[in-house]
Amino acid sequence: MELSMDVLDIDLYLLNHELLVHQIELEMQNEELEKAIDIADEMSIKYIDLYNLAPTGYISLTKEGEIIEANNSAYDLLGRKQPKLIGSRFGFFVSDESKPVFNQFVEDILVTKKTETCVISLNIYDDINTHVLLTGHITKNDEFCLVAVIDISELIANQKRIAQLEIFNDIFIDRELKMVELKKEVNQLLKKAGLEKKY
C-alpha cells in the first residue's frame, strides 16, 4: 500500500504541477488578451474620431436607401441632427432632376459590386441646390452601401463663373479685333483721301 501511495502522491504532484503550469499559461494569455483589447479600444477610439471629424461626409445606407449611420460632416451637409437623420431615406434629400442619376448609382453599386461615382444635387436649405460628388460601394457581406459625400458646390459655381468669363473674354477679344480692323480701314481711307493716318 505504501508503494501505491507514493505513486499516487507522485501522480498528484505531477497533476498539480501540470495544473499550475496551465494556470500560468492561461494567466499569460489573459494578459496578452487584455493588452490586445486595450490596443483595439485605442484603435477604435482613433477610428471613431477620424470618422466623425473627417471633412468628407460618410453615410451607411441600407439597400433601400435608408440612412443607418452617418458622421458629423454628413449631418452638417444634410442639415440634420443625428436622431432626425438616422432612419431617413437619402433619396429624400436628392433633387428631383438628380433622382434618376442617384437611383442608377445605387443600382450600379448593387449589381456590379464595384465602387461607383456620380454627381448629383441635393435640396437642403430652402430649395438651394447643393452639388455633391458621391462615391460608394457595397460591403463584402452585401448588407450595406457605404457612401462618401463631398460638397462640390463651390467647384460647380467656379466652373460656371469661368465659363461666363470665357464667353465675355471671347466677346471682348472679338470686339477688339473688329476695332483693329476698323482702324486699319480708317487709315486706308485717310491715305486714299491724301490725309494723314489717324491710327
Q: How many angstroms does the end-to-end distance come to?
A: 136 Å
* Biggest sheet architecture: 5 strands, antiparallel
SSE succession = HEEHHHEEEH
Structural class: alpha+beta
- Work out the radius of gyration: 36 Å
Task: Estimate what percentage of residues fall within beta strands.
Answer: 15-25%
CATH architecture of the largest domain: 2-Layer Sandwich
What does this structure look like?
The chain has 199 residues and is of the alpha+beta class. It folds into three domains: 1-53; 55-151, PAS domain (Beta-Lactamase, 2-Layer Sandwich); 153-199, no CATH class. Helices cover 59% and strands 19% of the residues. It contains five helices and five strands. It has helices at 2-53, 72-78, 82-85, 99-112, 153-192, and strands spanning 57-61, 67-70, 116-125, 128-138, 145-151. Strands 2-1-5-4-3 form a five-stranded antiparallel sheet. Strand 4 and strand 5 (145-151) form a beta hairpin. The longest helix is centred in the N-terminal third of the chain and has 52 residues, at 2-53. The protein is elongated and about 145 Å long. The relative contact order is 0.08.
Topology at a glance:
Blueprint: H1 2-53, E1 57-61, E2 67-70, H2 72-78, H3 82-85, H4 99-112, E3 116-125, E4 128-138, E5 145-151, H5 153-192
Antiparallel strand pairs: 1-2, 1-5, 3-4, 4-5
Key words describing this protein structure:
5 helices; Beta-Lactamase; elongated; alpha+beta; 3 domains; 5 strands; 199 residues
Give a short summary of the structure.
With 199 residues, the protein is α+β, with helices and mostly antiparallel strands. Helices cover 59% and strands 19% of the residues. The chain has helices spanning 2-53, 72-78, 82-85, 99-112, 153-192; strands spanning 57-61, 67-70, 116-125, 128-138, 145-151.
